[in-house]
């Protein structure tokens, strides 16, 4: 038969179980507003029954609390982390694209392209009525310089935005590295706690989940946690888990180990108008590229990378058609060998399209080489001079391997809009100059160029006179929105402005001015159309990208809120529900106490009032 005092043991187990349940409820209520806290609950099972020598065979031994567990749904966690990458990516794109949209639009406070362009051509119309008047000439020159300064300031603004995004990306990468380290440390702490006791390290797990929430905003994460089996007895679990976080297939966190992302300042510019000091990003462990150019990635870092480097896949591309090995001597007279590589079928056969920096890195097939300059040949092909001898030359030529400079980033980011402006100002300057150089100035001399660029190193005006186009030639490929200006010769002496091509017809003859005036809306300057239509088409691209970024940002944010609400419905603390639980456990605890009191009275009667 069972012990006479067995009832006390049963009631005592109830007191212990419901005391634990009340403590957990108190903890839930205390953390109702704690960020990242997951509601906890106790798991109770019946105690192991005892065999007694009675007809009923076994007697229940009360209740046992086996664990304090978190109420968390892994499905909603995974969905939240997957969606969070989209939230981060399009928040960044929306932020920067809305700024770009503002820069290019006319406002009541700031004159934009359309207003300045209209004023310039209106002053040209005025000059047509008084071609020889120096005051009207000065007015037209000044309004033209204002247009140049508009492009200068816009280019500078885009550069500053690129610098800002680059700095923000660096800061966020450092935060990713810090999170990876914290998670690896937490993994170790969690395993130590859970291997030493049957309980779960709930608070540590909350901290880890909160870090993964933050990490998923920066990068797309693949989270995995597996129980570790005993090496001798695979069916037995050790109590430890193996926790990994992968980014695009690469282990960012591998249980107790973690990798970091290195920010490496570029030695060479990829795009002609890039600012100095842009970063490339590689994994520290194997120096492999992160792959931000891939559309498979999402997150804030992807959004920033696209803004900084997005060239609409318009980086230099071509087919290798010839490689020659050359011999040279260095400053010490030592012999060395280098190669010249000819690339045909490029996407930059015209000067207006060129985005190449004078020197940089070119990829031939799968290998990168440093180039020190290039020459554009008569057939439109490019010949690059490398600093070393190329390898596998026959294979590269026979397989028609690709040659590329920079990365193809399929997004209209800052480099794309910089190149759009560069293309326009080159075409505009060439058309103005072709018209102007056909004329005669007030002194009867042949006119020089009207629009030029400032050499950012020497400060002198570009002559734009070289017929051969090279990496260092004084030609239109050196002209950008950043350095566009009216020629100093004309600015200092308005009489050098040509208005007529035939001095015999008198100073009031204005055929040059009339031809220039057609550039406003009658002559196509680029594929975008006339000067008047240029910004309209560019703004259309900007508006579409800005609207897309805004729409996707709103959509991802709304989906995130839905998922978060689902997640909170499981794991968040509901004070009303906890109140009900508190009353329930209080009543159970009181009844267990009452049971002990009742049993005590029975034992008192048995012991003190029963005798032989």
Keywords:
single chain, about 600 residues, alpha+beta, Elongation Factor Tu (Ef-tu), domain 3, six-stranded antiparallel β-barrel, four-stranded antiparallel sheet, about 20% strand, elongated
Written description of the protein model:
With 612 residues, this protein is an alpha+beta fold. It contains twelve helices and 18 strands. A six-stranded antiparallel beta barrel has the order 11-12-15-14-13-16. Helix 2 runs antiparallel to helix 11 and helix 3 runs antiparallel to helix 4. The longest helix is centred in the first third of the chain and has 63 residues. The two termini are 22 Å apart.
Major sheet: arrangement of strands:
11-12-15-14-13-16
* Category by helix and strand content: alpha+beta
Question: C-alpha Rg, in Å?
Answer: 38 Å
Low-confidence stretches: none
Order of helices and strands: HEEEEHHHHEEEEEEHEEEEEHEHEEHHHH
Q: Total number of β-strand segments?
A: 18
Sheet with the most strands? 6 strands, antiparallel, barrel
Shape: elongated
The multimeric state of the shown protein is: single chain
Helix percentage range? 40-55%
Average pLDDT reading: 89
How many helical stretches? Answer: 12
Determine the N-to-C terminus distance. 22 Å
| Percent range for β-strand residues | 15-25%
GO molecular function, one term: structural molecule activity
Domain Flagellar basal-body/hook protein C-terminal: 567-607
GO cellular component, one term: bacterial-type flagellum hook
Pfam families: Flg_bb_rod, Flg_bbr_C, FlgK_D1
């Amino acid at each position: 038969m069972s012990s006479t005092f067995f009832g006390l043991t049963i009631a005592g187990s109830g007191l212990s179980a419901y005391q634990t349940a009340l403590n957990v409820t108190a903890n839930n209520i205390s953390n109702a507003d704690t960020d990242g806290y997951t509601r906890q609950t106790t798991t109770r099972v019946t105690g192991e029954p005892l065999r007694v020598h009675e007809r009923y065979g076994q007697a229940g031994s009360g209740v046992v609390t086996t664990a304090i567990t978190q109420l968390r749904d892994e499905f909603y966690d995974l969905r939240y982390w997957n969606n969070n990458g989209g939230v981060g990516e399009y928040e960044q794109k929306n932020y920067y694209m809305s700024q770009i949209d503002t820069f290019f639009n006319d406002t009541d406070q700031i004159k934009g392209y359309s207003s300045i362009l209209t004023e310039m051509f209106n002053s040209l119309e005025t000059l047509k009525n008084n071609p020889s008047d120096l005051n009207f000439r000065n007015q037209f020159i000044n309004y033209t310089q204002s247009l140049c300064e508009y492009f200068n300031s816009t280019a500078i603004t885009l550069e500053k935005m690129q610098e800002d995004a680059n700095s923000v990306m660096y800061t966020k990468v450092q935060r990713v590295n810090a999170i990876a380290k914290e998670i690896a440390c937490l993994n170790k702490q969690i395993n130590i706690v859970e291997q030493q006791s049957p309980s779960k390290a709930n608070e540590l797990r909350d901290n880890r989940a909160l870090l993964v929430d933050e990490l998923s905003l920066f990068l797309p994460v693949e989270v995995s946690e597996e129980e570790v089996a005993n090496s001798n007895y695979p069916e037995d679990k050790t109590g430890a888990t193996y926790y990994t976080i992968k980014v695009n297939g690469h282990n960012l966190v591998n249980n107790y180990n973690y990798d970091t992302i290195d920010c490496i300042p570029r030695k060479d510019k990829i795009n002609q108008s890039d600012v100095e000091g842009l970063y490339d990003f590689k994994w520290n462990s194997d120096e492999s590229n992160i792959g931000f150019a891939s559309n498979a990635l999402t997150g804030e870092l992807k959004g920033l990378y696209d803004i900084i480097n997005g060239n609409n896949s318009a980086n230099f591309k071509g087919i290798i058609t010839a490689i020659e090995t050359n011999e040279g001597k260095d400053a010490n007279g030592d012999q060395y060998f280098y190669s010249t590589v000819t690339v045909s079928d490029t996407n930059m056969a015209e000067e207006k399209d060129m985005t190449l920096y004078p020197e940089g890195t070119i990829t031939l097939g799968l290998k990168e080489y440093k180039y020190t300059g290039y020459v554009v040949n008569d057939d439109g092909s490019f010949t690059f001079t490398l600093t070393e001898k190329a390898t596998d030359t026959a294979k590269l030529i026979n397989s028609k391997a690709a040659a590329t400079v920079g990365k193809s980033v399929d997004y209209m980011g800052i480099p794309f809009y910089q190149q759009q402006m560069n293309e326009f100002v080159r075409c505009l300057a060439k058309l103005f100059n072709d018209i102007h150089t056909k004329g005669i100035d007030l002194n009867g001399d042949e006119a020089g160029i009207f629009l030029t660029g400032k050499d950012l190193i020497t400060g002198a005006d570009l002559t734009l006179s070289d017929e051969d186009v090279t990496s260092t030639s004084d030609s239109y490929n050196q002209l950008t929105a950043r350095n566009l200006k009216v020629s100093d010769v004309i600015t200092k002496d308005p009489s050098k402005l040509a208005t007529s091509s035939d001095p015999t017809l008198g100073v009031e003859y204005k055929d040059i001015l009339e031809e220039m005036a057609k550039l406003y809306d009658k002559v196509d300057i680029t594929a975008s159309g006339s000067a008047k239509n240029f910004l309209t088409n560019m703004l259309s691209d900007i508006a579409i990208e800005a609207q897309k970024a805004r729409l996707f940002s709103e959509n991802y944010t709304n989906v995130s809120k839905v998922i978060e609400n689902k997640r909170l419905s499981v794991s968040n603390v509901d004070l009303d529900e906890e109140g009900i639980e508190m009353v329930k456990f209080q009543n159970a605890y009181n009844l267990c106490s009452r049971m002990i009191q009742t049993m005590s009275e029975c034992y008192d009667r048995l012991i003190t009032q029963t005798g032989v």
